[in-house]
Amino acid sequence: MGIRRPAISTAVAAALIGSLGVPIVAGTASAQDGATTVREDFDGDGYQDVAVAAPGATVGGHTWAGYITISYGSPRGPDPARTTVISQDTPGVPGAAGDNQVFGYAMISRDLDGDGLTDLAAVARDYRPEDNVSGSVIVLWGRETGISGEGSVRIGAPADAQVGDGITAGDVDGDGHTDLFMRNGDDYDYHDVLYGPFGRDGVPAREQQVQVYSTDNSINSTTAGDFNGDGIDDFATFYVYENHAEGGKLWLGSKTGLSTVPQRLNSASATAVADFDQDGYADLATRIFANGDTEGTEEDPGTVKIYYGSPSGISQTRVQTITQDTLGVPGASEKGDQFGGQLNAGDVNGDGYPDLAVGVPGEAIGSLAKAGAVVLLKGGTSGLTGKGAQAFHQDTTEVSGVAEAGDVFGGSVRLLDMTGEGRADLVAGAPGEDLGTVVNGGAVWFLRGVLSGLTATESATDNPVEMGAPADKALFGENLSGGNGPGTVIP
Predict the structure, then answer these.
(1) What would the pLDDT profile of 35-82 be if each residue is shown by its tens digit?
(2) What is the pTM of this model?
(3) How many CB atoms lie within 10 A of CB 107?
C-alpha cells in the first residue's frame, strides 16, 4: 500500500527551496543527556563528531540525490582537515545516487553493533510520481580511522519497499544494546522494532512488529527516552492527517520489549528529550501545532511545551509553556518566527542539567525575513526556564557571516561536546545560506559551550564550497545527525 501522503516532485521540491518554509513533518529525535546518554563518536577518539546532510545536492548528475559529511571533533572543535563526504556513489555504499533520493533525509547516530564506536544510520528516500514512497536505511559503520563507505549495509526490508519512516533509536528492552524503530515494509499500519546488536551484515538480533496506525494518520515525529524512570527506554510517536494534528502515543519499553498498548499523548511538531530537572525521569520538549493546524506552521510564532516525566510516563499535568514572550527569553513572539522549529538537548554549561537549543528559523533580524536564530534555554532544579536564556544569529558579534533574508539560521540544531571539555557545544545549520553565486548552498556554525552557556568567541563555520563538495541548492545543514530527522525543507 502506498504511503498516505503525497509524494514530492522535483518541481514541488524546487518551490520549497524557494520558500524555505517549515514542513508538516518535523522529524525524529533520540534521547539526549537524559535517560540514555548518547555519545556521537564515530572514530572513538573521545571527541564527539557530527554528520551534516545536504539532501538537495546534485550528485553524479542526479538532482536531489543528496550527500552526508562527517566532521570530527578536536580540542578546537570540528577539524576541517578531517571532513569526509559520503554519497550513495561512494565506494562500498549500497545502491547508487539517483534523482529525488535525498540521502540523509533522516540520520540516527548510535552504536548499533556494540563495538563501542558510534555508527550512522542514514535514510534515503525515493519520491516516485505514482505516490508510493520507497526508501532504504543504510548503516555506515564507525571505525577508528573514521566513517567511510567500507562495509556499509542496507538494513530492513528490500530496497524497493517502504523503509525508514519514523526512524528513531533507544534501548527498549533494557539489554544495553541499541534498538531501531521504523517502518520496515509495505504494510502501512505497522512499524518494526529491530533489536540490537546488529551484525555487520545488517541483521538485527530479533524483530517485533507494532501496529502504530488504526486510521489514515501519518507519523510526523518520533522520539525515545526513559520517561517512567525504570531504566528502559520508551518510544513516542506523533501523528498528522492532512492539515490536522492527530495527537500521539507513548509505547513503554520493558524487559521483554516494546508494549503494544500505547498511552495517549498530545500532538507535537518537533521533539527533544532530556531529564531537564534531573529527577530521574526523561522529559519531553515539543513544539506544538497552533490550534492543531499543521498548515499554519510556517506563519506560527512558535510555542514550546515541556511535558515532564513521571513514574507513569509522560505527565499530562506537569507541563510548562515557553515562548519568546516568556520572561528572560530574548526576542518577542512574532508571526512566522517558528520558535521551536527544531529542538535538541545537551548540557552546555556543565552544571549537570541539560539545556535546550531552540531553532527559530523564521526569525527576522531587523528587516531581514527568515534570517533565523537559535535560542538556548537552560535547565535546572525547576526544569527549563527563561532565566539566563541566550540568542544567537549571524549578526551576533563574533559569529561569522552576516544575516540575510532566507538564510533560516537555526533550521537545524545539535548540542554535543566536540571539544572534549565536558560541555555541549552548538552546531547550527542555515540551509538557505547563499555562498557567493551559489544559491541555497547552506552552511553550519559551531559555537563553544562554556561555564556561562554558549559563546560566539572562536566560533567557526563550514560550507560545501570550502570543502569542495556539490554546493548549488545543496541545502547543506538541512539536517544534522543525532536523530533530528527531516529539517526545515524536506516534508
Answers:
(1) 345 689 999 999 999 999 999 999 999 999 999 999 999 999 999 889
(2) 0.92
(3) 27
Q: Which of 122-126, 162-166, 405-409, 484-488 has the lowest mean pLDDT?
A: 484-488
| 490: amino acid identity, one letter | I
pLDDT classification of 430: cutoffs 50, 70, 90:
very high
What is the distance between the alpha carbons of residues 82 and 71, in angstroms, rounded to a whole number? Answer: 7
- Write the burial class of residue 176 (CB in 10 Å: 0-12 exposed, 13-18 middle, 19+ buried): exposed
What's the pLDDT score for residue 159? 64
Length of the chain: 491
Q: How confident is the model at residue 391 (pLDDT cuts 50, 70, 90)?
A: very high
Residue with cell 521483554: 256
Laid out side by side, the sheet with 342-346 consists of 342-346, 355-360, 373-378, 385-392
3-state secondary structure the chain: CCCCCCCCCHHHHHHHHHHCCCCCCCEEECECCCCCCCCCCCCCCCCCCEEEEECCCCECCECCCCEEEEEECCCCCCEEEEEEEECCCCCCCCCCCCCCCCCCCEEEEECCCCCCCCEEEEEEEEECCCCCEEEEEEEECCCCCCCCCCCCEEECCCCCCCECCCCEEECCCCCCCCEEEECECCCCCEEEEEECCCCCCCCCCEEEEEECCCCCCEEEEEEEECCCCCCCCEEEEEEEECCEEEEEEEECCCCCCCCCCCEEECCCCEEEEECCCCCCCCEEEEECCHHHECCCHHHCCCCEEEEEEECCEEEEEEEEEECCCCCCCCCCCCCCCCCCCEEEEECCCCCCCCEEEEEECCCCECCECCCEEEEEEECCCCCCEEEEEEEECCCCCCCCCCCCCCCCECCEEEEECCCCCCCCEEEEEECCCCECCECCCEEEEEEEEECCEEEEEEEEEECHHHHCCCCCCCCECCEECCCCCCCCCCC
| Residue 229 scores a pLDDT above 90 | yes
Strand order in the sheet with 106-110: 106-110, 119-127, 133-140, 153-155
Say how far apart CA 401 and CA 407 lie, in whole Å: 11
Per-residue pLDDT at 20: 54
Angle at 73 between CA 459 and CA 353, to 5 degrees: 75
Q: Which amino acid is at 246?
A: E
The percent of residues in the chain predicted with pLDDT above 90, rounded, is 79
| Predicted local confidence at residue 127, as pLDDT | 54
Mean local confidence (pLDDT), 150-163 = 85
Rounded to an integer, what distance in angstroms lies between the CA atom of residue 260 and that of residue 251?
7
